[in-house]
Description:
Blueprint: E1 10-15, H1 20-23, H2 26-34, E2 38-45, H3 60-64, H4 66-81, E3 84-90, H5 112-126, E4 130-133, H6 143-158, E5 176-180, H7 185-197, H8 205-209, E6 222-225, H9 230-239, H10 255-261, E7 264-272, H11 301-305
Parallel strand pairs: 1-2, 1-4, 2-3, 4-5
Antiparallel strand pairs: 5-7, 6-7
Helix pairs in contact: 4-9, 5-6
This protein binds zinc ion.
Residues 16-17, 20, 142, 145 line the site of zinc ion (ZN).
Amino acid sequence: MFTKPPGGLRLLTVHAHPDDESSKGAATLARYAAEGVDVLVATCTGGERGSVLNPALDRPEVRADLTRIRREEMEAAREILGVRQQFLGFVDSGMPGPDEPLPEGCFAAQPLEVAAAPLVALIREFRPHVVITYDETGGYPHPDHVMTHKVTVEAFEAAADPKRYPGAGEPWQAAKLYYHLALSRAWFQTMHDAMTERGVASEMAELLAGWPDTPPTLATTTRIECADRFAVRDAAMLAHATQVQPGVAFMAHPRDIEREVWPTEDYHLARSFVPGAGVAAGTIGSAGSADAVENDLFAGVRAVDGA
Ligand SMILES: [Zn+2]
């Protein structure tokens, strides 16, 4: 449990499993934490059904103790990022095959109101100005990621409504809700092209070849400069040692090239209660447009709060 902060800006990011906070938006978290923002990671499940992706650690005693090990890995990553973290207490749904049912009692099999209740209570207690989660696709077709999106949207709205979830704390309206645009096709293409132009072997060609080049459905509304935190992001990811597949495409590229050609983490502003901030009509352009209108998740909030 955390102790309530005295004031200032608060950022809540909601993830499905331990390690997701380190692979999507981690440099953003490290940057804001270093600037004094109170950053809290809410992790919906314990990652109990995750595979051991690192062959060096794929041993029976590791698989048998994965719940505890993933908690320790999460704690190490949390420390590296300089943030706070709380588990919401649900059980990983795993990645069922096409005709397989969800395991009984898992996170994705919960009724929405049950699954969202701990997050409603957390939002009312922590009182975040900004909340980040996945878009409706989950960003990745894992049932827990899709459920994390649903639960976060539900909790973002319901936490503000005194008639909903009675007994779960005083209502709180977070000012903004963002979706990650991490690990997009555009990012992989840009990295691949930059490596190829510089004569560096790219591992991304195969991935891109199987990825339809359709325009993104969500506009990039916000780009957060955080290249000087990429090393922190990488260290946090490596702390999830059982989850790091050696040579995986998004870990294998040269960091100096990444800092040069894509020095930001990008977001889509999905909801905003900040007057005049963010999504001004006509300034966003088409989905995926480079005309990002924000370079700060707290744009419009700082002025209101005087922070
Ligand atoms: Zn995940």
